[in-house]
Amino acid sequence: MSLRVPFRSSRTSPLRTRAAVLAAGLGASVVLGAGVAVAADTTAASSAASAVQAQAAAQAKAAKAAEVAAAKAAAKEKAAAKAKAKAAAAKKAAAAKKAASWVHPVRKYTLSARFNQAGSMWHAKHSGQDFAVPSGTDVVAAHGGTVVKAGGNGAGDGPAYGNAIVIKHGNGTYSQYAHLSRIDVRVGQIVRTGQHIARSGNTGNSTGPHLHFEIRTTANYGSAIDPVAFLRAKGLSL
Questions:
Q1: Residue 229 is inside which H or E element, if any?
Q2: Per-residue pLDDT tens for 29-63?
Q3: pTM for this structure?
Q4: Residues 127 and 89 in one domain
């Protein structure tokens, strides 16, 4: 008896071959698609991170700029406040200096006969400002200068003034003090602002103890100006 062996062809059938190719292609597509998806996700993540970093950098830059601007504004405000305080201090010092450069010729006085006042007591109008004070009151130089007149008979300006003193000041102004009971300076003597020069009295053409005070543009009678307005312009209150 003969044995039959089935015949098997070494060729793969076209159908199987096509199926294998399709399967392989499908697998490759899946793998490729996965790779593309991963790459896309990576790119998106990188872009998002870059955007976040850019935003953070912009915010930090804006915050720094705001901080610098605030610091500049604060410095400017501080400088302005300092300048204002300095100006106020300078103004106060100038006012104090201005007031200190001239002083009242007597203290604790009452203003009586005023400048340019008319009356029978004077040959013309009153040439000065009277400060009513008791006899013997301390009389001081209203401003520093040099004594150019001192003595009786109005120091040369007439008996109506009684004992008198005239002081020449550095700014071309003269001050006169009259009706004195005592003179304590001499001609040619340099006196400082506020220095004692005499005692008030009632000498000359006077109806009661007081100091007659004049501001003049020369050393002589007839050149007087309003002494109250002058002293007020120097920062004094009367």
A1: helix 227-233
A2: 444 454 545 455 677 777 777 888 888 888 888 88
A3: 0.60
A4: no
